[in-house]
TrEMBL record:
PANTHER family, per the entry: ATP/GTP-BINDING PROTEIN-RELATED, GLIDING MOTILITY PROTEIN MGLA
Keyword GTP-binding: yes
Similarity comment: family membership: Belongs to the GPN-loop GTPase family.
Gene3D superfamilies, sorted: P-loop containing nucleotide triphosphate hydrolases (3.40.50.300)
Provenance organism: Streptomyces thermolineatus
Keyword Hydrolase belongs to the record: yes
Keywords: GTP-binding, Hydrolase, Nucleotide-binding
Protein name (database record): ATP/GTP-binding protein
Length: 201
């Protein structure tokens, strides 16, 4: 018998579709926060304390309280409905760990790109890096911080040079419903993308 405390760790027997999602973004955009807020299991985290050695290398403007960083990956799980379960892999944001993205992305159905518009230039490099995986659909989620200057969607699309079909959603990574909405937008986009590819082949 499954104890009450453990019940949410088990999947309904009807689940047929495990879907792997990669969560990427520049340093400190809220990837670990998002995976933690949506995950129905205790998320796996690989946080290490940021030391003085990173000063001048790691751009942390706007994040006065940030003192740890992901050094390998985040992992979490969300059951979307009685058929589909998402496995979330959060990538490290420090540039020197970006070579891990390739391995983490293996088999991913889609990529959620978290963006902090206060440091938009850091996201240019993230999107460049994603272009290396042109066959994996992605969605952009703008994570809002208290001093975030509101950007119009068109302005943001132009700045990030996005295709008209790429979803852009607002989110608060600390909020489960908001983060879930961003993931659902990505899954819907990835599903449409897959159907379009199958129809074209
Ligand atoms: N106000 C606000 N703060 C947030 C939000 N999301 C994350 N934070 C804070 O921003 C900081 C960075 O969040 P993390 O989740 O560690 O960011 P990350 O992208 O995983 O960072 P790295 O792994 O170091 O790249 C933390 O102090 C969070 O509490 C948000 O939506 N709003
Ligand atoms: Mg992190």
């Amino acid at each position: 018998m499954v104890s009450e405390a453990c019940a949410d760790r088990y999947l309904p027997e009807t689940v047929q579709q495990p879907v792997k999602i990669l969560v990427v973004g520049a340093l400190g955009v809220g990837k670990t926060t998002l995976v933690g807020s949506v995950s129905e299991i205790r998320p796996l985290r690989t946080e290490e304390t940021m030391t003085e050695a990173g000063a001048g290398v790691d751009r942390l403007a706007g994040l006065p309280d940030k003192n740890t960083t992901t050094v390998a990956m985040d992992f979490g799980r969300v059951t979307l409905n009685d058929r589909v379960v998402l496995y979330l892999f959060g990538a490290p944001g420090q540039r020197r760990f970006w070579n891990m993205w390739e391995g983490l992305a293996e088999g991913a159905v889609g990529v959620l790109v978290l963006v902090d518009t206060r440091r938009l230039e850091d996201s240019f490099e993230v999107l460049d890096q994603l272009e290396l995986r042109a066959d994996t659909p992605f969605a952009v989620a703008v994570n809002h911080f208290p001093d975030t200057h509101p950007h119009g969607e068109e302005e943001l699309r132009r700045a990030l040079d996005l295709l008209p079909t790429t979803p852009v959603v607002d989110c608060d990574a600390r909020d489960r419903t908001s983060s879930l909405d961003a993931l659902i937008a990505l899954v819907e986009h990835a599903t449409e993308d897959l159907a379009a590819r199958e129809a074209a082949s």
